Structure formats: C-alpha cells, structure tokens
Amino acid sequence: MKKLIIINGPNLNLLGKREPMIYGSNSFEEFFKKLKNKYADDFQLEYYQSNIEGELINKLHEVGFNYDGIILNAAAYTHTSVGIGDAVKAIETPVVEVHVSNIHAREEFRHVSYIAPNAKGVLFGFGLQGYELALQSFL
Ligand code: DQA
Fold first, then answer.
1. How confident is the model at residue 58 (pLDDT cuts 50, 70, 90)?
2. Whose CA is closest to 69, among 93, 98, 34?
3. Relative to the CA of 110, which ligand 1 atom is closest?
4. Pocket around ligand 1: residues whose beta carbon is below 6 Å from it?
5. What is the pTM of this model?
6. Positions of E strands within the chain
7. Which atom of ligand 1 is nearest to the CA of 9?
8. pLDDT digit string (tens) for 100-125?
9. Which of 3, 59, 75, 77 is deepest in the core (most CB within 10 A)?
10. How sure is the predictor about 90, in pLDDT bands with cuts at 50, 70 and 90?
11. Are 57 and 114 in contact (CB under 8 A)?
12. Which of 7, 22, 31, 103 to mutate to test the pocket of ligand 1 (most atoms within 8 A of CB)?
C-alpha cells in the first residue's frame, strides 16, 4: 500500500477558526479523519503540522526517501522559505503543493512559491478539496 503524508505549515492548525471567509469553517482534523477513511484501501495516510520552519524541513528529510508521496501546504513559508524549497529539491519523494485559497487571486507576495519549481504539481483555490485532489494524483 502506498504511504503518503500531508504536511501543513504555519497557522493551518487554526483551519476552521481562522479567516473562515478565506479558509472555510471546517477543522483540518475532522476533514483528515474522513479523508483517511475514504482512501483506507488505497493509502496509508499520515498528517503532520508545524508552525516552525526547521521542523517542517526535518519532517521532509525524514519522510522524503521512504514515502511514496508528500502533499505539502507550507502556508506562508511557501512564499519566503528558500530552506523548504531546497528540502523539496533534495528529497526523492514527489511533492504535490496545495493551497486552500487561490493564492493568485490574493496579494502579490502570495504569487511567489519556492516550492512549485520542484513540485510534481500544484493545486490551489479548491478549499480543502485540494488535498483530496492531490491524493488522487497518487492513485
Ligand atoms: C495558504 C496560502 C498562504 O498564502 C497563506 O500564508 C496560508 C495558507 C493556503 O492554503 O491558502 O497560510 O497556504
């Protein structure tokens, strides 16, 4: 069975509470439980969240040579972190970049991604469904 992990970056622990007009009103934990059950026959699915850049890099190193896929929403670090971009480049496991909101319809600083050049693909603007679409790309 394929082993996948969803890695969420800073402030995404507040999904459901944070700016619901932009990010929706569902918590990620609830959504994740449903997603994990729905695809239980296809994937061994894990979830990791951190607000700390170095911890996200450590996790990418840890899973990046033995998992089959990574779904990464690095949140604000997407637009700033050369370190996370380099980590995505350094590892072997394919990374699909996801954003809940349409980052290209928002402020210009959100149009830049240090991850996208080394991602297998990028999904943005589909709300939490983007994570499911990313998952399906590994079927
Ligand atoms: C985000 C978009 C980022 O610009 C923002 O900093 C986030 C969330 C998204 O999922 O839409 O925290 O990655």
1. very high
2. 93
3. 4
4. 11, 73, 75-76, 78, 99-101, 103, 110
5. 0.96
6. 2-8, 43-49, 69-73, 95-99, 121-124
7. 12
8. 999 999 999 999 999 999 999 999 99
9. 77
10. very high
11. no
12. 103
**Residue 23 alpha carbon to ligand 1 centre in Å:** 9
Q: How far apart are the first and last CA of the chain?
A: 11
Ligand 1 centre from 1 Cα, in Å?
30
CA 53 vs. chain centroid, Å, equals 14
Token pair 């990620």 is at which residue?
A: 28
**How far is 16 from 90, CA to CA, in rounded Å?**
33
* pLDDT attached to residue 22: 80
Q: pLDDT value at position 24?
A: 78
Domains of the chain (ranges, CATH numbers): 2-136 (3.40.50.9100)
In this structure, the residue with its CA closest to atom 12 of ligand 1 is 75
Instruction: Specify the pLDDT at position 26.
Output: 84
CA–CA separation, 11 and 36 (whole Å): 22
Q: Which residue has the tokens 């994937």?
A: 43
The answer to whether the beta carbons of residues 102 and 24 sit under 8 Å apart is no
